[in-house]
Protein 1
Amino acid sequence: MPMDRSEPAPRSSVADETPAFAPLYRQIKALMMRDLQAGVWRPGAAIPSEKDLALRFHVSQGTVRKAVNELAADNLLVRRQGKGTFVATHAEENVQFRFLRLRPDDGDAGRMQRSFIDCRRFAASAEVARWLGLKSGDLVLQVRRVLSFRGRPVVFDDIWLPGKLFKGLTGERLASYRGPLYGLFESEFGVRMIRAEERIRAVAAGAEAALHLGVAPGAPLLSVERLSMTYGDAPVELRRGLYDTTAHHYRNQLS
Amino acid sequence: MPMDRSEPAPRSSVADETPAFAPLYRQIKALMMRDLQAGVWRPGAAIPSEKDLALRFHVSQGTVRKAVNELAADNLLVRRQGKGTFVATHAEENVQFRFLRLRPDDGDAGRMQRSFIDCRRFAASAEVARWLGLKSGDLVLQVRRVLSFRGRPVVFDDIWLPGKLFKGLTGERLASYRGPLYGLFESEFGVRMIRAEERIRAVAAGAEAALHLGVAPGAPLLSVERLSMTYGDAPVELRRGLYDTTAHHYRNQLS
DNA sequence: GAGTGGTCTAGACCACTGA
DNA sequence: CAGTGGTCTAGACCACTCG
């Protein structure tokens, strides 16, 4: 059987963290990830069929299938029986905001409005630089906004982005874009959010947050700090959301 | 090939929610789930090898493999290469508390102490009955406790359990048991927590919570309401935790 | 070494989609 | 109808664990 691959099995040499012998399907997965990251396969578009991929990589269909399954489990690909396999995207998702876990206490969603407060750029503070993996003093973009459910403000977001990645981002651009923020990041700046970590605490509302959310200063708010990562776990967004949880809650599934 | 199964494919008749044609491996999965629920395979014990299961169910090894993989993904089974496949258990887990997402702000864990406040039984309020799927007035058990990290109280838990399932549970029994609460539920009462939903909000500390957590009344606390389910998504525990998040945070992974 | 789960293959057939 | 992903099989071989 033709066992020659375009890229031979990476038998790692000295002590490194990754296991020395990666199974074939993980090597295929890594190759496909490379194409995703490089934008060879664009968000929303179909990737080659399993049969084609099997031919291209000189492996059996079952092996590419395992690779694709893992990428789908990682939410990088979406399988659609009878149609094909597609690159996942934040742009045209049924669920408006994939990473937002806030839900109204009564199930019924009832669409959500955004309003942007400002969009400024300045030198990163030491802490923001640390989280985003920048040098202190690097250019950083700050976006602030409010989300409202049924006309009532519920979320006050403070977002920091590396200036280098979001060069042309302005307040007008934000205001005019339809759809999720991460959809804009993806289509306009080629930055795709893959995964995020959130740290949640309860805090007392400061003057500014109280104003924007229409609550009394000192009222308890949910503080949600989110660090979003793109390919290779590189951090590309830091966000601090303050949620008014009097009529909403943060929902989480444990298993 | 012998295509006779002990249980024929369930071709469902009239309109029901579940898909009419379940693939073979899902039928196998359902059969295995039955054995898990019935306690035929006990927590921590090894289940038969894939080869044995394939013979028993008259399917190929690849098919039982798919069933087992899904059960492992659901955290009902644990695979250990070279040793076998085991029934998951809360009792002997590395991670002390599998469902507790609270972490100290500095990573380092530093073990955790429990102290039980009381354990009472009485008639369920309408709301508790609703969450637990009981009739209002059914017997309910209430457990209250405090968790401390490094000597400082951090979590004040209020736990409700259906009286019917936890007949012999007493304060002494709770105090003397080593290991996670869910381990005790599993070994002593045969109640296995499979999955849970949490609703998180920010609240102001009441008098009692302030006392137990050593914070000022009115201080912001994280309120974590958890509904835990056993097999068949039957709710078996309602819990309301109040977390002091001045030096800890609730951590969540998004993807 | 025997027994377990993990990988890989090759091929048959099914279920779904859209032209 | 052709093309896609989804299921199922049978068998070979590998990697890990333990006596």
Protein 2
Amino acid sequence: MPELPEVEVVRAGLAPAVVGAQITAVSVFDERALTRHAQGAADFAGRLEGAQVVAAVRRGKFLWLPVQGERDALIAHLGMSGQMLLRAPDAAPERHERVRLHIRHPRHGELAVVFADQRTFGSLAVDELLDTPDHAAGGFGSPLPRIPSQVAHIARDALDPAFDDGGFFAAVRRRASGIKRILLDQGLISGIGNIYADESLWAARIHPETEGRALSRPALARLLGEVRLVLEKALAEGGTSFDAQYVNVNGQAGYFAHSLNAYGRTGEECPRCAGPIRREAFMNRSSHYCPRCQRRRQGQRGSL
DNA sequence: GGAATAACCTGGATGC
DNA sequence: TGCATCCAGGTTATTC
């Protein structure tokens, strides 16, 4: 599923092809891909056609392309199965293709940017850019201190140089929720989904139901360090692909699935202690952890 | 404001 | 072979 490393691979793949390009035409095949754009397909296309892309930026799992004038941006969230693919302008339609942008780049010529999405949880929109409250860059990929209004409530991610470690520790220690639920709260720390939450907690040897307020600052510092290591390693390996749901802009899969220690390894030996990895229901999804390495302690919630 | 949960959605896997 | 059910999970709205 597209989490921070997967979205960053997409951003980095798109950037050379779209920055400096002019959007010449927009085709919307399925308006469900525009659930974030309330004004509809005609308005969406009208605001993009003729615009020139000036950057490709990412915060957490959100991606956006500011256009010339830096007042608006095309924003994209891949949801669970969204793909941004670079194709020849006359390429045959992709399976589950929802939107196609035709672009003209001064060096690369005519190209198509295809948004395909099987489960339709992803969406695109044209949104206004606001100043960032801290005057730091809105996200990775541009120094511009601006952020789309729909992304303004999303916290900085753990790889962002402007991420406030101390503020994060303090916010976690005020919460009674389990630490996994906190890691998935994009308003507190962005970019982490189910896979990297499980992997980071396994690496830090913390039980996923440990209450935030029960974790010491050193334990949280260790966890944040592991979050960063896991994200950086996944990024270096091109992200996690279990099937065709996540691919880069050229349709290629990532390799980090081979490096997972807990997620998706139910019943297999823990790489650290050889105990069996356990899977349990959590928030309408699953948690994977090692009950031997990630022991329950006092101050943990009841369900896992 | 924090916490918890349901709904949205498609297709592959599984069971009968 | 065909049908029904389960499962995957990010975000948002709703409720408490």
